[in-house]
Amino acid sequence: YKHDVFVTFSGEDIRENFGSYLFAALFRESVKTFRDEQIRRGDEIMPALLQAIEESKISLVIFSKRFAFSRWCLEELVKIIECNKLYQTVIPVFYKVLPSDVRNQHGSFGEAFLEHEKSHDLRPKVGRWRDALREASDLAGWDSNVTRLLRHIINNE
């Protein structure tokens, strides 16, 4: 593998907070993590991202409120699920969203798909995106709501 970890996320939601802490922790632990700024100037972005996914041992999928609004994130997720069926470990992280909202496309995920379905160009992709969200949300991962609750319970005892 060229990369230990590929991380897909909505930059709008996590780049300046959770994402910066996550990438700093991965760097501290010498985990080879693909970052989109590694794409060479002049390269086509989506093919480079899809190749990086293929070259990664693990994909970390950070689901957040704006994730499903990003066509890039959804396309990356489809590729990640394809790789998961062949060789790749996929770890979902539900950051301030419910796993059931991801699985069933409720809440902000439902709103995003209402927007996507308005576009005739995107309609052929919507079914693949929905399937990928369902499959990813069925994998064992981390739920920030539960983790925060457990931390609260532990610290108060």
Automatic annotation (TrEMBL):
<protein>
    <recommendedName>
        <fullName>TIR domain-containing protein</fullName>
    </recommendedName>
</protein>
<dbReference type="GO" id="GO:0007165">
    <property type="term" value="P:signal transduction"/>
</dbReference>
<dbReference type="Pfam" id="PF01582">
    <property type="entry name" value="TIR"/>
</dbReference>
<keyword id="KW-0520">NAD</keyword>
<dbReference type="InterPro" id="IPR000157">
    <property type="entry name" value="TIR_dom"/>
</dbReference>
<dbReference type="InterPro" id="IPR035897">
    <property type="entry name" value="Toll_tir_struct_dom_sf"/>
</dbReference>
<feature type="domain" description="TIR">
    <location>
        <begin position="1"/>
        <end position="157"/>
    </location>
</feature>
